[in-house]
Amino acid sequence: MLNRVLDGFEGKLTSSKWAAIVKCSPDTALRDILDLVDQGILAKDKGGGRSTSYSLASS
Q1: Interatomic CA distance for residues 9 and 54, integer angstroms
Q2: Cβ neighbours of residue 32 under 8 Å, at least 6 residues apart?
Q3: What is the spatial distance between Cα 48 and Cα 53, in angstroms, rounded to a whole number?
Q4: What is the C-alpha separation between 7 and 47, in angstroms, rounded?
Q5: List of residues 6+ apart from 39 with CB closer than 8 A
Q6: 37, 30 contact by CB (below 8 A)
Q7: Is the dihedral of CA 11, 12, 13, 19 positive or negative?
């Protein structure tokens, strides 16, 4: 999944899209994403709630 994000993912990356693509539960998708945020690979976009999206962290 991370390779797809690095190769120019179309649209906004959300936990529900992650779960659908990887075929995992929404909770697992969120844990995966939050782990990548903690590692500094992804960053949380402005906004929140149900529309929370993530993008590659700028270096």
Answers
A1: 11
A2: 1, 18, 22, 24
A3: 8
A4: 24
A5: none
A6: no
A7: negative
Taking the C-alpha atoms of residue 18 and residue 2, their distance in angstroms, rounded to an integer, is: 10
Report pTM: 0.84
Tens of pLDDT, residue by residue over 27-43, are 999 999 999 999 999 99
> With b meaning 16 or more CB within 10 Å and e meaning fewer, what string describes 38-58?
eeeebeeeeeeeeebbbeeee
Angle between helices 15-22 and 26-38 (to 10 degrees): 110
